[in-house]
Amino acid sequence: MDTETETLINGERLKPNQGLPSNSADGAIIYDSSHFQLRSRDRHVSYGSINGAVPLLENNREPEMPGRQSVTFRRLPPEMLTTLSSQFESLDYEPWESRVFKEENSRKTPSSLTKQGVIRWVVVFFIGVCTALIACTIDICVVEITKLKYGFLKKYIDKCVTENCLYIPYLQWLGISCGFAFIASLLVTYGEPVAAGSGIPLVKCYLNGINVHRLHRLKTLFVKAAGVTCSVLGGLAVGKEGPMVHSGAAVAAGLSQGKSTSLGFDFGILKEFRCDQEKRDFVTGGAAAGVAAAFGAPIGGVLFSLEEGSSFWNQNMTWRIFFCSMVSAFTLNVVLSAYHGQIGQLAYDGLLNFGKFPDIPFALLELPIFIGMGIIGGLIGALFNQMNYHISVFRRRFILSRWAKVLEVIVVCSVTVTTGFVMIYCVNDCKPLGAKDDIDFPIQMFCEDGQFNAVAAMWLQTPEASVRALFHDQPGTHNPLSVGLFFITYVFLACWTYGLSISSGIFIPALLSGAAWGRLVGLGLYRLTEGAAWADPGKYALIGAASQLGGIARVTLSLAVILIETTGNLSLGLGLMLTLLTAKLVGDCFNAGIYDMNVQLAGLPMLPWSSPPLCYGTEARDIMSKPVVVLREVERVSTILSVLEETPHQGFPLIFEDRFASPQGKQNSFGMLRGLILRSQLKILLKEKAFCTSPTGGTSQTPVPLETFRMYYPRYPTFQGMHFTEEERSSYLDLRPYLNPTPYTVPMHASLPRTFQLFRALGLRHLIVTDDNNEVVGMITRKTLARYRARICCGTIDFVELPLGGHGVQL
Amino acid sequence: MDTETETLINGERLKPNQGLPSNSADGAIIYDSSHFQLRSRDRHVSYGSINGAVPLLENNREPEMPGRQSVTFRRLPPEMLTTLSSQFESLDYEPWESRVFKEENSRKTPSSLTKQGVIRWVVVFFIGVCTALIACTIDICVVEITKLKYGFLKKYIDKCVTENCLYIPYLQWLGISCGFAFIASLLVTYGEPVAAGSGIPLVKCYLNGINVHRLHRLKTLFVKAAGVTCSVLGGLAVGKEGPMVHSGAAVAAGLSQGKSTSLGFDFGILKEFRCDQEKRDFVTGGAAAGVAAAFGAPIGGVLFSLEEGSSFWNQNMTWRIFFCSMVSAFTLNVVLSAYHGQIGQLAYDGLLNFGKFPDIPFALLELPIFIGMGIIGGLIGALFNQMNYHISVFRRRFILSRWAKVLEVIVVCSVTVTTGFVMIYCVNDCKPLGAKDDIDFPIQMFCEDGQFNAVAAMWLQTPEASVRALFHDQPGTHNPLSVGLFFITYVFLACWTYGLSISSGIFIPALLSGAAWGRLVGLGLYRLTEGAAWADPGKYALIGAASQLGGIARVTLSLAVILIETTGNLSLGLGLMLTLLTAKLVGDCFNAGIYDMNVQLAGLPMLPWSSPPLCYGTEARDIMSKPVVVLREVERVSTILSVLEETPHQGFPLIFEDRFASPQGKQNSFGMLRGLILRSQLKILLKEKAFCTSPTGGTSQTPVPLETFRMYYPRYPTFQGMHFTEEERSSYLDLRPYLNPTPYTVPMHASLPRTFQLFRALGLRHLIVTDDNNEVVGMITRKTLARYRARICCGTIDFVELPLGGHGVQL
């Protein structure tokens, strides 16, 4: 019996601590825990070592392949943009094929499967409807309150222009805007910081497989929706489309679980969807619905979700996502049509409706112009991102306290209002009234009677309306000088605004500033060609907008489709695509896209699209983390407790007890692989006290059912409040019913690309590295793989290894 | 030395044949080859056994998991619709990470990567252009010759109606049509039988990973393009859209290789794209371009290719596919616009342009009607498929000789023409001339002056024009009786026609017959509601067309998007989707879609979307093929020759020589896994005579470079013309530089769903089943997995195991 107190960690049968009485084995952890440290910068020990006994893997391995040329990854120093945070864990996308799972599965009947399938469709339907309703609510609130705000201001401006009291409307404007900005900022800063920004990067990360905490809570949803409404009402240079995508994702996560942990109620339904895999599938649909509602682009929504979310194509899921998108677009259309008094007309395809472009004459010779505009957009975008990066770094260093964040929002808001007011005051761009009749509040300012100030028209409306105006106004409507001035000021304001502690999207600011310079190009061409039919400034405004968006966000395919759907013009599709691609290529030569930069700044270990190129010489054993903390199939409770307390790992390979003593392979490995168990499962088993007294395991015991595991999802028990008696500590936990007996493994000689592909294509969380005898030699996780990057530009490749930092042990 | 003549097959070291002199070891194969037989119906031996020594795997395995409930798969008897053909092999989608590959890879520079990337885009550009040009050529030929044909006929009909000699235009019509049908049939039957039918099922199979022979040859492309032109000109109930997709795929496969084996020339360029993986990526783009050209749906094209082709999402590849689609749609637009005299107008989005639907009033209460129509479409579609199945089975049994196939085409063509003529003669549906002016050949027949025969208008134009007419004509244009009669005759003709030995698509016939009954429903609603605005017969014709297509083809998501794009109406999208989904669900209760039925009839081992449900109790060892034919790393030439001659396998696991003799695991396994080698590689190595004399392998020898392997791609050497001297036969082949050292493996206890997912997500060809010691115990290939199916309908699941038949050893 005494030999059973030996601890099997790191592949060494450690000598039991002879001096201690056997009943105190729990208190006295028999390995020296002081040796345990997370040497995060040593790439071979990043997975942690408990007793420091690093196996001599390098000395006794397979003969080296002749001519193997491993790429040298340049290790980057830890700094703001490059450090991956270790606190983010992956989602479990694979079904956990334990014995309890299989038993539950074998009890399922075809009719229960059908029922579950039907429920999925019903849930998806409601996700679509709710997402659309939230989007409608935000939109209608913004439109109505904006009308009130600018109507009020117009009254005072009109009055004060004659009475020479313009400081009054200025102060009113300042007050109203800062008031809303203050609320927006308070909500995010003090309410839910994860609701800051666009939300698209975080949703992308979630779909990529990263478990971002608090992302889908009810509170987050509320803060996001109310926050973005206030930000837009505050007149800041922000859009509301990104937050709508986040809202859709949060709605999906909430509705699909049939409970709200925040509010503390549980409908007791949809219990079978309480796992990462199902939840992520629903969130995929919710994000698509958000895109469909925000941009009126259901196909783009599907592509967005698939592109970011799907490891591989699942036809049924894709149909559901598509249905969700369609329902969302349809609901929005019904509600908005009714709101605009056209019940049943279905005239409002989406919130960001650019207005249909009629058949635009479009000649082949324009393609080079589009490419040229793509280059400009790429350059401006790269500059924008670089500035925003420096601002973000500044913020991270110096704007740390909550009140400072709120104050910054107020400052930005004041500057925005002041800039707008000064421009309206100084630039006297007068146009005759009635030339276009969709301006809500034509302000005369110093213009003659029957004219209005065109600059004021740009500032005193929602950014969406300004984009539409730049796209569709007649060639003579805008003065090049005022458009140019507007572009410069707006692009700086947008750059400063993005990253503030408010809910804010970058889509609309990018499109608006792009449309401004695009229109300038179009006006130039229009004058050069003396009004040729193809030199339509509106079309060039669209190309400029696409180019700017491509340069800033480095839009992916789905965003290209969204733009094409939003403009409703397929002929221009090729032009848009060329522009977007050029802008992306040019921008990528300088820095990353703004979303990727956000992800990197947050240290999120998002897996890129593909493994670094030319890395076939780098093998799994070069990048894997080791030593590995392993457990036995039937393990002593005290050992499990110690391991959980002293290591941050989320998954533990289990090894065969009896094969462990075999002399061969001992030196190199941590034992023969038996399965894998997760930290969360161990915690639940400890909480449930599913212990047995025999070290061979209790086969007669009824295992903890899967329902219990689902009950705890997604907030697993913590050790606070868990107490174990001495007896419990010295008893055993039989892990065999719960372990995944066939976890994914990779041979240690497998190349980095092959490892990467396996990990990414299957959406894995843990990949165990084995040697030729199927013994555990290392572990590869998302953070391992995410560290190895290649930056390709201008014919050179820079191979880098990102540092890992900010370890936080989550219990 | 003598012991080296031992053969290592099936995990047993066989005793050398002592009586033979060592120099005749080649002639006398030392295992008893008479034992070798492919017991295809025994599921455990489907991979073949050479010496019949089946390891005692079942007796000595891991302890059974308590409560494991393996699903019982009902073994189907071999019959036409259920037997999988064993002659189709998979494509190699994974890069073959051998030492020679890695060495070549490590010699690559970033600039060579960039160059390769640029070349890919250029190739993709030309694929798009060429696909569009071929589509244009087909279309213009069809339109022009149709004009001549029907113009000619109109002249004689008009003349003969008065002169009472209508048999003359009938015979003329018959003669012209049968002439074209005869050419169409000759081309396919005697030219290239693989060009028969739509091509979409075969392209889907290729993208799924099946190596369909002769699918992408130049000859196939020519026969397909010329054949479909003749079929349509023959007035048969066929469409030209499916063949265009196939043409796009063939163009891509041809252009991307830089050589034509058919014509025997080699430009010597694009050599790096000569492998299955690269070729398949290009074909994905080509198929998308084909869809874009045929339907004017670039996004639908991308989705089509991704849905069928991509194991997982690759952003770069997706961009290229999208670009290819866009270029194709754009080129087609430019050419067709120029052809129609509107140079630079870009007014022709695609060949199958249904004509834009303007904003159709569309009420929520119509959704139930759409669902009802979906049910009707599903029922009609199921009936259609069932009839077509029986016709196909009849054809397979009785219409075997080539001339019989040609004769059948002539018969069908005659019946089609006669039916059309009789209908025109008998049904006197007169409409005033000028009500619509897009009829090319209004035929008066027995109508009064100033009127034309509406039935004749339906028959004497291309099917595409008829679809447009049914969608867009005013409510009063068509007589319900004649539309109903047209529907019934056309649906039967289409059913008989599909599957003939001609190039023919099913898309247009399905849409046309669906539009006919849909319009009837619309006309009924129009009369019931006394002309309500929403009861637009054109809209219902569209819904009917979608429903019929959904019922026949069980359209997938991409086809839904294609329909939405083609109609250019997003509002109706939800309606279309509901209809399509309903039709699919209803139809699936009765039989498979027509494309799937084609695939099954051809015995193609296409992998379904997901593994059968509820199968977590079934493990890899239950389905794997064994025994496995294994080779050593350095193997005797005579052994390799024998193995290649006597087994049909395409991949051979390699085992460690030295570990083979180890006592443990011997009983259960075929040896410890060292790597995998392909039959094609062995054949090339034999052809190149890369032999060495030492059984330990020649390390000093320069290995055969990868370029040599590419040179042979895709038609590998055969044994005809290969001669080996006695000395060569007794020498050795060192396989170590060419083997894949880390092939994908799966533990034998892994569940069927997990195995399936691994295989499908990574696009594998061979999956080696290993035991806990990493020793080879079995093999899983596409054909293994494709055999296990589940048919779900009406709350029950039927688990079936398809038989495997028609083994053909390909050398």
Automatic annotation (TrEMBL), chains A, B:
GO CC terms in record: lysosomal membrane
A GO MF term: chloride channel activity
Species classification: Eukaryota, Metazoa, Ecdysozoa, Arthropoda, Crustacea
UniProt subcellular location: Membrane
Keyword DNA-binding included in the entry's annotation: no
Matches recorded under SUPFAM superfamilies: CBS-domain pair (SSF54631), Clc chloride channel (SSF81340)
Keyword line: CBS domain, Chloride, Ion transport, Membrane, Repeat, Transmembrane, Transmembrane helix, Transport
Protein name per the record: Chloride channel protein
Main subcellular location: membrane
CDD domains to which the protein is assigned, alphabetical: CBS_pair_voltage-gated_CLC_euk_bac (cd04591)
Topology of this chain in the membrane: Multi-pass membrane protein
InterPro entries in the record: CBS_dom, CBS_dom_sf, Cl-channel/antiporter, Cl-channel_core, ClC
Gene3D superfamilies: CBS-domain, Clc chloride channel
PROSITE patterns: CBS (PS51371)
Membrane spanning residue stretches: 118-145, 166-188, 287-306, 318-340, 360-385, 406-425, 481-499, 506-528, 540-563, 570-587
Family: Belongs to the chloride channel (TC 2.A.49) family.
Region (Disordered): 1-25
